[in-house]
Amino acid sequence: MAAIRKENARPPFLMAIYVLLFAAQLLVCGAAKRNVVILTEDNWASMLEGEWMVEFYAPWCPACRNLQSTWEEFADWGEDLEIQVGKVDVTEEAGLSGRFGVTSLPTIYHVLDGEFRKYTGSRTKDDFISFVDDKKWENVEPVESWKAPNSFLMSCVSWLFKISMAVRTIHTSITEDYGIPVWGSYCLFAAVTIVAGLLIGMVLVFITDCLCPAAPPKGFYEPVQMEMPPTKVRRDDRPPTEDQEEEDEEEEEMEEAEEGDAEEDNDANIRKRRVKATAE
User: Fold this and answer.
1) According to the UniProt entry, where is the signal peptide (predicted)?
2) The pLDDT of residue 27
3) 64 tagged catalytic
């Protein structure tokens, strides 16, 4: 048995060679990986300077996994092509996924001094090298400025993606960690959404009223003029004058004369009636 074990034992120098080869392979793989820059929310702005080729991928994507080795081989040419090669994991960086408008995987962008172009060619190392070295990117229309990843609009989209991922994380935590059913999580989010909408609406209305107060209706502050019937001022309310006193005396005399004439007429009528009555 000892002889058999001695024959099957490998020489120590062969084990040393295996270890050295394994270490060399790890170093090569590590060097290849170091050539690919891992981009995140913290360092993505570095691609706005210089020339870049950036891949957006997901670990669960089969096409992304097939492209992985090719992309690392292409990264080895980065120094010769005077470009930097990067990649973004969309499962970890949802904000960058929204910022770049990634709708399919893998998605590759060519970036030159803040000008973005989407790569749609073949996904081979030679095609990548030719695209950069032969400047084929000049035949590709750049992304419009208002849709560029560094624009204000896409920054807002990036925040929306971050919020959606946060909501998804909270939903997962509620249903898995706390055991709340899915419908209960949906009801909770609906209530929070309604309350938040009401509060935001009240704040916006208050700000709008302060900055742009509504104009009052026409004639709201104008005094209302009502037509009043003309009032007659009695002469008794006026302070008497000499002419008015004379007129008053004349009027009184005329009234007395009229009263006297009326009494005389009444007496005459009474006499006539008596005479007529005695004659009958």
Assistant:
1) 1-32
2) 47
3) yes
Q: Which of 38, 58, 156 is nearest to 103 (CA)?
A: 58
Distances (CA, A) of 32 to 22, 171, 212: 15, 38, 60
Tally of CB atoms within 10 A around 185: 17
Give the mean model confidence (pLDDT) for residues 111-128: 94
Active-site hit among 29, 64, 187, 210: 64
Q: Say how far apart CA 31 and CA 17 lie, in whole Å.
A: 21
Calpha distance 252→34 (Å, rounded): 128
Hey, which residues does 51 pair with through a beta bridge?
Answer: 112
**Strand boundaries in 11-75, DSSP class E:** 36-38, 51-57
Considering 29, 61, 187, 212, which one is annotated as catalytic?
61
- pLDDT(197) > 70: yes
Rounded to an integer, what distance in angstroms lies between the CA atom of residue 141 and that of residue 137? 8
- The structure tokens listed for 9 are 């034992």
Instruction: Look at the pTM and tell me if it is higher than 0.70.
Output: no
Query: What would the mean pLDDT of 254-266 be, rounded to a whole number?
Result: 70
143 has a pLDDT exceeding 50: yes
- Which amino acid belongs to residue 30? G
Domains and CATH numbers, the chain: 35-153 (3.40.30.10), 155-211 (no CATH)
